[in-house]
Amino acid sequence: MIDRETFNMTYENFDKEVVVEIIDIFISEYADRMGAIRKALDEVNFDGLNKHSHSLKGVVANFYDDQTHQLARQMEMMGKEQKTEGAEELFGHLKSSTFALVEELKEIRSLYL
Length: 113
Hints:
This protein is mainly α. The protein has helices at 4-11, 16-42, 46-61, 66-81, 87-112. Helix 4 packs antiparallel against helix 5. It starts with a helix and ends with a helix.
């Protein structure tokens, strides 16, 4: 869930078009990002898991969604520490949380149009 107060304070001086563009980029890249993490898990590719989870974590930080950020961080750490125990469950939570973030961003986006 986005911390709306922090989000609004951060983006209040941005042009509306810029905020919409930032949101649109995340939404358009969402499926590929999640697919890359899924693929890294399937292939037991720890470097890929670390890299793609780190990338997601960084992008999510822009939207002040602490839950999704923390889940991406945990997935990143699994890659760094080369661990797979609990990865499927964690990925399920990350996928759900990221989907909820996308839906919330769509709602925010509509407010800027």
